[in-house]
Design a protein that fits this description.
The chain has 108 residues and is α+β, with helices and mostly antiparallel strands. It has helices at 37-58, 61-67; strands at residues 3-17, 20-25, 30-34, 71-73, 76-78, 90-99. The protein has a single domain, classed as Double Stranded RNA Binding Domain (2-Layer Sandwich). Helices cover 27% and strands 39% of the residues. The strands form two sheets. A four-stranded antiparallel β-sheet has the order 3-2-1-6, covered by helices on one side. β1 (3-17) and β2 form a beta hairpin. It starts with a strand and ends in a 9-residue tail after the last strand.
């Protein structure tokens, strides 16, 4: 099955909480933790990818973004708060693969 891929560019922030680190992605309101800053970041990237992929697979992507405060304007989603990325935040891409049904053939 042929596939195309979209990519979301998100950011997260990491804070130390006791013996662990907590990573948060405001755009998707997702939080993870890890034993190190790097582990918390990787866990957040994975959580964001799984969340978005699940939304696409279940057909709930637009509904989920609306519930998170996103708006669709001119065919493009816009985040609920257009703010600058906070100092110390990290950016990360989240690739989302789309499967396309095999074509039977071109009748042209």
């Amino acid at each position: 099955m042929p596939a195309i891929q979209a990519e979301f560019k998100l950011f997260g922030v990491v804070k130390r909480k006791g013996d662990s680190y907590v990573a948060y992605c405001p755009a998707l309101d997702l939080t993870t933790q890890g034993r190190s800053s790097d582990e918390a970041k990787e866990n957040l990237k994975e959580a964001c990818s799984l969340f978005l992929t699940s939304c696409f697979e279940r057909g709930t992507f637009e509904q989920a973004l609306r519930e998170l405060g996103w708006k669709v304007t001119k065919g493009r989603p816009s985040a609920p708060r257009q703010t600058e990325i906070p100092h110390g935040a990290f950016q990360f891409p989240v690739p989302i693969p789309f499967g396309l049904p095999d074509t039977v053939g071109c009748p042209a």
